Design the sequence.
């Protein structure tokens, strides 16, 4: 009989949030204490009816009020909080031990940091938090004895292939390379001159994964892989030179770790986020996730390619930003979020995404990311400049 684990799910109405609730609902020993969303009142209301949390938090004040009224009318005793402080409160409740950090983008940073500061087990899907503020985030994890487990399928795979003592330095435990796999997205083989006219609908149609809109566009530009290179550097205490991106269009191998004795360890499975979610929820034990077992005879062929840095300028920009250090990755992330939102609203074309990010990076003054104020200022200023470029 496993001990009861009490959870807050930040971003419960998103793709990762819903997959988390799916895994949780398959087991008796997870209790959902708090759920959060940005503006989706109806979806959060339905989740509250099904999972009976003690708290629900919505960023938007009006949405929170609507949710509160609906829950009262339904006779449910759920405390509804609002604003970013509401999210921070539910991420650090004394009664929870685990936080699923599944808000998309920079908006996830403050609540995810609150969970780390409160010493929780943090299941990290929100990679943008580490890209914006990796050094400070990892310091909070260490200083507060939080446990950080990666949900991103690649990082979860790497974690599973690492020796237990990897935090002491990859070279000292015999690792010589991390092989970070990438599907290559929907435009891997599309003629280069067609890319300037691709639509948001084409960009979000990922061949192997069902995901939120922002990460789907990031996968099409391969900025997602760039963000993941940066994420891997912080999670595994290493440098971008130790990370080789490998395009593997089948998305069955979720990443690999190469050792000095010639061994290469891989983690495989069907592309379904419930595997890394279940792995992190139960770690170091294993639980069922609802994922179909991998039929190795059906997959049969694995392909591997080097990434095309010319086609995927975003990947190059991410490597460059991580090499530069300090607030460069904060600027990269902010400019990317603004550019992707503008692309989804059809204000700019697909190929303008990397142009805007590059222009914001060359305009910004890169500083040491000494504290949160410096990071948040870099984020804010980069957004303003990116917006200006989009309006031109
Ligand atoms: P999504 O768009 O489906 O869901 C995002 C969630 O965040 C929703 O619950 C939404 O209400 C909430 N949210 C959005 N803006 C917010 C704001 N300003 N303040 C507070 N909450 C806000 O996104 P997703 O695909 O579930 O991705 C979530 C995170 O997980 C992202 O960081 C993404 O990179 C990462 N991730 C996702 C996948 C995947 O397969 N979907 C895989 C790996 C990593
Ligand atoms: Mg990933």
Sequence:
């Amino acid at each position: 009989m496993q001990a009861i684990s009490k959870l807050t799910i930040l971003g419960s109405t998103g793709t990762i949030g819903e997959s988390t609730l799916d895994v949780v609902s398959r087991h008796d020993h997870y209790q959902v204490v708090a759920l959060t969303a940005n503006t989706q009142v109806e979806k959060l209301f339905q989740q509250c009816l099904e999972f009976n949390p003690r708290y629900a938090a919505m960023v938007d004040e009006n949405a929170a009020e609507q949710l509160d009224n609906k829950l009262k009318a339904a006779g449910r005793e759920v405390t509804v909080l609002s604003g970013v402080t509401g999210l921070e409160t539910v991420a650090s409740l004394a009664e929870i031990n685990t936080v699923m950090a599944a808000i998309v983008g920079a908006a996830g940073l403050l609540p995810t940091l609150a969970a780390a500061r409160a010493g929780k087990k943090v299941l990290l899907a929100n990679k943008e938090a580490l890209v914006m503020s990796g050094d400070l985030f990892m310091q909070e994890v260490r200083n507060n004895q939080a446990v950080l487990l990666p949900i991103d399928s690649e990082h979860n795979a790497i974690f599973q292939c690492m020796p237990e003592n990897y935090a002491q330095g990859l070279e000292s435990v015999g690792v010589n390379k991390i092989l970070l796999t990438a599907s290559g997205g929907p435009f891997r083989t599309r003629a280069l001159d067609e890319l300037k006219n691709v639509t948001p609908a084409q960009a979000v149609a990922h061949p192997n994964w069902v995901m939120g809109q922002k990460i789907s566009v990031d996968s099409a530009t391969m900025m997602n892989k760039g963000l993941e290179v940066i994420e891997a550097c912080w999670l595994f205490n290493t440098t971008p030179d130790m990370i080789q991106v490998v395009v593997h269009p089948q998305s069955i191998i979720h990443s690999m770790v190469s050792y000095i004795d010639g061994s290469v360890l891989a983690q495989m499975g069907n592309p379904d986020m419930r595997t890394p979610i279940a792995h992190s929820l139960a770690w170091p034990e294993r639980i069922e996730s609802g994922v179909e077992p991998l039929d190795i005879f059906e997959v049969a062929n694995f392909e591997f390619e080097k990434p095309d840095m010319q086609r995927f300028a975003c990947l190059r920009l991410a490597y460059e930003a991580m090499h530069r250090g300090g607030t460069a990755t904060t600027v990269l992330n902010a400019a990317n979020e603004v550019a992707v939102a503008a692309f989804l609203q059809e204000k700019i074309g697909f190929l303008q995404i990397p142009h805007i990010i590059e222009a914001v990076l060359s305009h910004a003054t890169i500083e040491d990311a000494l504290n949160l104020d410096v990071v948040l200022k870099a984020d804010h200023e980069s957004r303003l400049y990116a917006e200006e470029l989009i309006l031109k």
